[in-house]
């Protein structure tokens, strides 16, 4: 099988947009340099944090191309290829394979309810586009409205050995434990909720695909590194900080706070796609105040410069 597998802290990358909505190529390069310098173990682009539902298929391809060039094989890189239309998912997977990515990931088709047989056909059709390319199921039932059960993923892996992992954003720790129990610790079980990264590692998870790492990669990497070094006390302290940050980030409006946090570190791409909205001045002031309070409480600097 080709491609390096995702483990450790994998950043769920943002998509930097210029003011007119085009992809900011230079910003992608600076962002990738920043992530790699801060120790992230991989990057995942054009996912939920990357605003994929608001992009055309050509924009998604273009973003993948820009990220492949910017990452330049320095860390494993995967791209999201899921879509409500299986034809689009197949096209995106073929394009990603031709780019030479290390892996692809896909949410289930969303909006309609789909039973396990529908989901089985969807995922196996995509995975068969390149049987040598590592494929990860992206379970996000709150947004996709379809839950990919451990039993179904085991069936998928048996049918397509290149289905090697799952990113679980169910917010349900028992579900993650079930993945490990049914699929085994050799399967690439990746936590998708930043509030449960340490708990996932303790149970044998391979790592996390982290939205918090987009703006604060040092924090998430230190949780992982402290766990690996056996310093559970420090890992627990930093996990609590990550959990508190998640509350701050999840206040409305969606996604804009993550780009504001990057602005606080010296980046300059605050724009989100319509129909997302920018933050008001009051929301910006409140966010900055809450971040400052967390920095003081946990004695951890979050908003130092880019490099």
Task: Write a brief caption for the model.
With 307 residues, this protein is α/β, with parallel strands linked by helices.
Amount of beta strand = 5-15%
Overall 3D form: globular
Query: What is the CATH topology assignment?
Result: TIM Barrel
As for the number of domains, it is 1
N-to-C terminal Cα separation, in Å?
35 Å
- What structural category arises from helix and sheet content? alpha/beta
Mean pLDDT: 97
Global Rg: 18 Å
- By CATH reckoning, the class would read Alpha Beta
Count of beta strands: 8
Binding site for pyruvate: 49, 209
Active site: 138 (proton donor/acceptor), 167 (schiff-base intermediate with substrate)
InterPro entries: Aldolase_TIM (IPR013785), DapA-like (IPR002220), Schiff_base-form_aldolases_AS (IPR020625), Schiff_base-form_aldolases_CS (IPR020624)
Family: Belongs to the DapA family.
